[in-house]
Amino acid sequence: MFRAIIHMIRHDGDPACMAFDGKVLPDVDTYLEFTDRPDAPIGTRTVDKVKQQPRPRFYATHLGYEAVPKSILEKAKIIYVAGNPKDVIVSTYFFFSSLKPFAFSGTLEDIAMSYINDKAPYTPFHKHVASFWKHRDRDNILFLTYEDTLMVRT
């Protein structure tokens, strides 16, 4: 669904852009917070990937409001998607479990406790969500909940 939202934004809301003949919509796979190895070749670094994208550029982040660069907060259009904490915990568990090189062998309870104790990435969870919630009325920020997007029917 989020690919479709971004695809429509890229095409100024033209519904004809959704006729993609079964091809997968372009994905946003450049995350601002993912750091590169110090020896990463020029042209392959995150910053290079962003610069190489055609305008308008699209990228994703899990960063809280205060950690997003000021230039992005002032100039970019931002879609913030908040999730139900229980769903976020379950999704995190399955995501970590799928990362074979990291050999995560913890339990769902381990993940839940890491959120409760603010040891999970991007925690404290409620502070993270609140950081964008208090800016939800800005013209360049669309604040959504994942659950609300599931209720939208076309």
From TrEMBL:
Keywords carried by this UniProt record: Transferase
Gene3D superfamilies per record: P-loop containing nucleotide triphosphate hydrolases
Domain (Sulfotransferase) ranges: 4-148
Molecular function terms, GO-annotated: sulfotransferase activity
Domain of life of the native organism: Eukaryota
Signal sequence residues: none
Pfam families reported for this sequence: Sulfotransfer_1
Family label: Belongs to the sulfotransferase 1 family.
PANTHER family in the record: SULFOTRANSFERASE SULT
Annotated protein name in UniProt: Sulfotransferase domain-containing protein
Species, as recorded: Ramazzottius varieornatus
Organism lineage string: Eukaryota, Metazoa, Ecdysozoa, Tardigrada, Eutardigrada
Gene behind this protein: RvY_00202
